[in-house]
Design a protein that fits this description.
- The protein is an alpha+beta fold.
- The chain has one domain (2-77).
- It has four helices and four strands, in the order βαβαββαα.
- It has helices spanning 12-27, 39-45, 61-66, 71-77, and strands spanning 2-4, 33-35, 48-52, 55-60.
- A two-stranded parallel ribbon has the order 1-2. Strands 3-4 form a two-stranded antiparallel sheet.
- Strand 3 (48-52) and strand 4 form a beta hairpin.
Amino acid sequence: MLFDEPTSAIDPESVGSVLRIMEDLAATGITMVCVTHEMGFARRVAHRCVFMEKIVEQAPANQFFRDPTSSRLKAFLR
């Protein structure tokens, strides 16, 4: 399932419910590709992350957040 900024054009009160639905879908094992600025959501749900300007860095999710290698990603995560 593909998501392109699923929370970008909705009211702030609805963001949480949309993210909970997506977390429930992820828990079923469905493959999802999600473009998002919701870093907390990505950290909780993702197995793999890609940071793109052009592809700057990609890694398994735990490594992506814990030990980024590019200075651009390090700055973004701060």
